[in-house]
Specification:
By secondary structure, the chain is α/β, with parallel strands linked by helices. The chain contains 13 helices and 13 strands.
Length: 381
């Protein structure tokens, strides 16, 4: 870090435990710990499972503060969000962080003492437009207002792709200062092994954005078995039961990496995916990628994947059959995707966040200096 970009000693970070935000938060917390930064991770949603707890316990300088408050996109979350607001402000008073890193929107409008970095991983309005092909219905207006207020209050808004950043501006109005930082995954955790005639996918089966029902439709017509890992039970109730794809359920990271290492093709015909951590993990594992033709995935993978219209099962079936029948094409795509994946490192992600944190802290220092003529004592420079 340069002298003009201070390094925080303590960061209070929020995260949910339901999806990819947890994976991202743990990866970033691990990198911050290596740089001597203490992280207080405030979790909401489901309780940590045993694999999540074990992973967190292995990271030095990380303290996890658990809650089971509803997330802002869940049904009728407002009472929980109010309770979570009090809990988070009390945590800030207890932890005394130099910076607050929010992986959600609504709590951005709280009267935080520390400066706020907000990361837009996804949102309901862009999800609805991409998945349903129409604006979100009126019952989501309170959510939209709360998200807009949170975004407007942030000192910096970060997104994992230009496509996601553009979606935020489209749905919630002009943003404050912004930055795009791609996510990263550690190549030591995902390695190719002996490949087998397997098509693999991963994601929440109940999430229409992942579009795993498209794989369910085409699986009977493919010469290879199709395996799917992920939760089948919706947090608000209900369960998806596939008949043609082979459901593996929720897998630990080690088990997921083993399946990805074996699979020849990774298929994610997503309608909406602001970054796609699973595609990155698959590429590191030596899979050829078949992905939904959406702006974010095009932005990240370009010519290194086969893209199919998400709502065209015939195109999906044709793309998969073509790759299955053409090992040379698979090999070429595999090499290209893995080369790209090796560029998306945790180190590069960490450097981006430290630079972002530094800019925000420097701006706060300048503001305090204008007001008082002296620097705050808590930030290391």
């Amino acid at each position: 870090m340069s002298d003009s970009h201070p390094l925080p000693r303590k960061v209070l970070m929020t995260a949910d435990t339901v999806g990819g935000v947890w994976t991202y938060a743990i990866e970033l917390a691990r990198g911050l710990a290596d740089r001597g930064v203490e992280v207080a991770l405030a979790t909401m949603g489901e309780p940590l499972n045993v694999h999540q707890r074990e992973k967190a316990d292995r990271i030095p300088r990380l303290r996890v503060f658990e809650s089971t408050f509803k997330l802002e996109w869940m049904e009728d979350p407002w009472r929980d969000l109010d309770k979570a607001a009090d809990w988070l402000l009390n945590l800030e008073e207890r932890v005394r962080p130099d910076l607050v890193h929010l992986n959600g929107y609504v709590h951005g409008a709280l009267p935080w003492s520390a400066p706020k970095v907000m990361v837009g991983h996804s949102c309901v309005l862009s999800w609805w437009q991409a998945v349903k092909g129409e604006p979100a219905p009126p019952e989501w207006e309170p959510y939209a207002r709360a998200v807009a207020a949170g975004l407007a209050a942030a000192d910096l808004v970060i997104a994992p792709s230009e496509a996601m950043l553009a979606s935020l501006a489209t749905h919630y109005g002009k943003l404050p200062k912004t930055r795009v930082i791609f996510n990263g995954r550690d190549s030591r955790d995902f390695k190719p092994t002996a490949k087998e005639p397997i098509v693999f996918s991963a994601g929440r089966l109940w999430d229409e954005a992942k579009n795993l029902e498209a794989l369910e439709r085409v699986a009977p017509n493919l010469p290879w078995d199709v395996f799917v890992a992920g939760e089948s039970i919706h947090p608000d109730g209900g369960e998806i039961r596939p008949h043609h794809t082979r459901l593996l359920g929720h897998l630990s990271q080690r088990a997921l990496a083993a399946w990805l290492g074996r699979a020849s093709i990774y298929c994610l015909p997503a309608r909406y995916e602001p970054f796609g951590l699973s595609a990155l993990e698959a590429a590191l594992s030596g899979c050829a990628l078949v992905l939904g033709d959406i702006p974010s995935l095009r932005e990240i993978w370009r010519h290194r994947a086969v893209f199919v219209p998400p709502n065209d099962p015939e195109a999906l079936e044709s793309a998969l059959k073509t790759l299955i029948d053409n090992p040379d094409r698979r090999a070429s795509l595999t090499a290209g995707a893995r080369a790209r994946a090796l560029q998306l490192t945790p180190q590069k992600m960490l450097d981006g966040y430290l630079a972002a944190y530094g800019e925000v802290l420097a701006a706060r220092e300048a503001s305090l200096l204008d007001d008082s003529g002296s620097f705050p004592a808590q930030v290391a420079v």
